[in-house]
Amino acid sequence: MRLSLLLEREPFGAILEATLARYWSARSGRAMHVCWHQPGTGPAGAQEWRGNSYLNYFTVSETSAAALAVIRREFARSRSPWLRPVQAAYVSLATARSTRRWFSQAAFSVMPQRDDAAGSFVVPGNHRLRILCPERNSSVVLLKNGFPARYLAAEIEARQSIAATLAPPLAEVALDGSWFAEGYIEGTPANRLTPEKEREAIRFAVEGLREYAIVPTLKIERASDWTERLEQRIGELLRESGAEIDAEICRRLRDSAGRLNQCVRAAGALQLGTAHTHGDMQAGNILSADDRVWLIDWEGAGRRLANYDLLSLLLDVRLDPHWGENLARRLDEAPALGTLSFLSDWPGVDWGAGGRRPTLAAFILEEMCYVLDDALQSFRRAPTDRLRALAETVEAAEKNLANVA
């Protein structure tokens, strides 16, 4: 998640101050102070790290443009042919050592100054911060201050088991689980590749996910038993939200959950598989580097429907706010993308004529749980807006189920 969005969602400056000060103090053995401020207004004598809200990084003035190659690789190529020249020029200027200070929108300062700052950069994220240093082949992932420990715990558990082959190797894990270090991968996200190379990277990632995560952890269950638990969990999450959420939105979400669960119950003895899933399967979390593909960001890992990652990718639920409206169309387009063959042959999935509708209904329930759980965590501002959008998306998806053969 980009800095520009994080600044709207949460008190990001205070979170960054506490997160970096805690980590750097512990690692250096001396008190480190981090201060969030506007560019050029930091304390005298402090080391200033300037950030670009759109390219999602902070670094010091001494860092070379070469150290930021991964930033340029991620953002320089627009998906729109008409925007590519302009975007490429912006990214070049915003990462060049001589001009990037004019393209900074945020900053923080560190006291005392860090000797290893040159060549390093900080990348904000949804639940964590990354400190990357290509020259030292180093990447450190920090749990953001105040965020539930389960996010990093889920990633560490997955990386030490099912994801050991799929993700970059872990180098070190903090005793308290608040950070881990891994090898630095200079890769390109699949969604920044050409369409042909993107499809190839996704295919490799999906095949690896199936072999190393889904098949070894697959468990066949009665579909209605699983969706009954999902409906109950949705109810619990909405009750835990208390007065934060508009009562009408809560009612709509509960009603949708009930109808989707009934759709699955109507399928009788239908069975579906559950497995240990990635949880945030999207092209941006698939890195193409040299001669292989890596699957990164396992913080959402956990047991879900075995088809959850594949359908998340196919329906583009993380990036398309209208995926509910587009559900039937994306399924129709799937054969041309080469992904439907995965779905029809995926472990624990009944994609026959009688199984498609309840299978999709179960997936929508699973996605409701994911979004509710994420939206109601610490520090979120105005979760009602996100849950109103969720209610609208789910209702649109329900209507589209009628068009699924």
Fill in the keyword field for this structure.
single chain, about 400 residues, alpha+beta, Aminoglycoside 3'-phosphotransferase, Chain: A, domain 2, 2 domains, 9-stranded antiparallel sheet, 3-stranded antiparallel sheet, 15 strands, about 45% helix
3D architecture notes:
- The protein has 405 residues and is of the alpha+beta class.
- It has two domains: 3-147, no CATH class; 189-401, Aminoglycoside 3'-phosphotransferase, Chain: A, domain 2 (Alpha-Beta Complex).
- The protein has 13 helices and 15 strands.
- The strands form three sheets. A nine-stranded antiparallel beta sheet has the order 1-4-2-3-5-6-7-9-8, sandwiched between helices.
- The chain is globular and about 70 Å long.
- The protein starts with a helix and ends with a helix.
- The model has no long low-confidence stretch (mean pLDDT 91).
